[in-house]
Design a protein that fits this description.
By secondary structure, this protein is mainly α. It folds into 2 domains: 87 residues, Orthogonal Bundle (DNA polymerase, domain 1); 127 residues, Intergrase catalytic core (hpI Integrase, Chain A, Orthogonal Bundle), CATH 1.10.443. The protein contains 13 helices and 2 strands; from the N terminus they run ααααααααββααααα. α1 packs antiparallel against α2, α4 runs antiparallel to α5 and α11 crosses α13.
C-alpha cells in the first residue's frame, strides 16, 4: 500500500471521523509520516504488528532531535493513536496500542486572569453575542466559573431544578461528589437575567443552559465565545474558561482564605491539588512587585 494512501486514510479519520482540530490533524499526520519514513514500505497489517520497542526507538530518534518532554508525550500519543487505527483497519480483536509510559511532564502553574479581565471578558461575550439571550447565557456561565469556582462541566450540568438560585448552590463534581458553594449576588442576578430572556422552557429535569436550538449547551460553544472575547481584548491564549476557576481560587487565597476551605469550595479530592494555588499567589505577588517596584 502506498505511503500516501496510508496517510490520506489517517488524515480522513482524524479530520472527518474524529473531528480533530486542524492543528491536531497536521501534528498527528506528521508523526505518522515520520514513522513510515523509518519503516519504509508498510501496510495496515505490518503497522498493526508494531510493538513497544519499535515505538521507543522512534521516540528516541525524536528526542535526539531535541524535542521537549511535552512534545515527546504528544508524539507518543500520536504514535499510539496511529497504531490503534492500523489495528482497527485489520479487524484486530484487540485494537489497543502497545502499552508505554510517556515522559514525565512537570505541571505548570495555572495562569489566572485579573478581576478586571474577568469582568471585561464577561461583558465582551455578552455584547458580541448574536442574540441578547445568548449573551446573557454566556455571561451567566462565565460568572459561575469566576464567582463560584465551578468547573465548566459542573456549570453546564446544572438543571432547572437549581432555580431559583439561593445564596448557596449544591454542585455535583468529579466522582459524583457533591459540595455546597456560596453564590454572590452578581452571579445570581446574571443567572436570573438569562432565565428571564431564555426562549426555551427550563423544566426541572432539563439543562439549565440551552444551546441556540434548545438542546444542552456544549463546552465547545462556551470556549469559542471565550476565545473571541479574549482575542478582542488582547488577552493571551491562557485566558480560557478554566482560567476563571483558577482566578476564583487565587483571589480567594490572596484575600486570606485558608487552604482547607478553598479545597472544599473547589471540590478537590486532596489538599495537594489545592496547594498549587499558594505558588500561584506567590507568583502573582512577584509579578506585581517586579512591575511596580522602582528597583526591581
Amino acid at each position: 500500500m502506498k505511503r500516501a494512501d496510508l496517510l490520506e486514510a489517517w488524515h480522513s479519520h482524524l479530520a472527518q471521523g474524529r473531528r480533530r482540530s486542524p492543528h491536531t490533524v497536521r501534528a498527528y499526520v506528521a508523526t505518522a509520516a515520520r514513522l513510515l519514513d523509518e519503516l519504509g514500505d508498510s501496510d495496515w497489517d505490518s503497522l498493526s504488528r508494531i510493538a513497544a520497542p519499535a515505538l521507543r526507538a522512534q521516540l528516541a530518534r525524536r528526542r535526539a532531535d531535541g524535542i521537549s518532554n511535552a512534545s515527546a508525550a504528544r508524539e507518543l500519543s500520536a504514535l499510539k493513536a496511529f497504531i490503534r487505527f492500523a489495528r482497527e483497519q485489520t479487524g484486530a480483536s484487540d485494537p489497543a496500542p502497545p502499552r508505554m509510559r510517556g515522559p514525565r511532564i512537570k505541571k505548570g502553574l495555572p495562569r489566572p486572569v485579573t478581576p478586571d479581565e474577568a469582568v471585561n471578558l464577561a461583558a465582551t461575550i455578552e455584547e458580541d453575542a448574536t442574540e441578547p439571550w445568548i449573551g446573557a447565557r454566556d455571561r451567566a456561565v462565565l460568572l459561575l466559573l469566576y464567582g463560584a469556582g465551578l468547573r465548566i462541566a459542573e456549570a453546564l450540568s446544572l438543571t432547572g431544578a437549581a432555580l431559583p438560585l439561593d445564596e448557596t448552590l449544591v454542585v455535583t463534581g468529579k466522582g459524583a461528589k457533591q459540595r455546597m458553594v456560596p453564590l454572590l449576588p452578581i452571579v445570581r442576578d446574571a443567572v436570573a437575567d438569562y432565565v428571564g430572556k431564555c426562549p426555551w422552557p427550563l423544566d426541572k429535569a432539563g439543562p439549565l443552559f440551552r444551546g441556540a436550538k434548545g438542546g444542552p449547551l456544549s463546552q465547545g460553544m462556551v470556549q469559542k465565545a471565550m476565545t473571541r472575547a479574549r482575542i478582542a481584548l488582547g488577552l493571551p491564549p491562557s485566558a480560557t474558561p478554566h482560567a476563571l476557576r483558577h482566578s476564583f481560587a487565587t483571589h480567594l487565597l490572596g484575600a486570606g482564605a485558608d487552604l482547607r476551605s478553598l479545597q472544599e469550595l473547589l471540590g478537590h479530592a486532596s489538599l495537594g491539588s489545592t496547594q498549587i494555588y499558594t505558588k500561584v499567589d506567590a507568583a502573582v505577588l512577584l509579578d506585581v512587585y517586579r512591575s511596580a517596584h522602582p528597583r526591581s
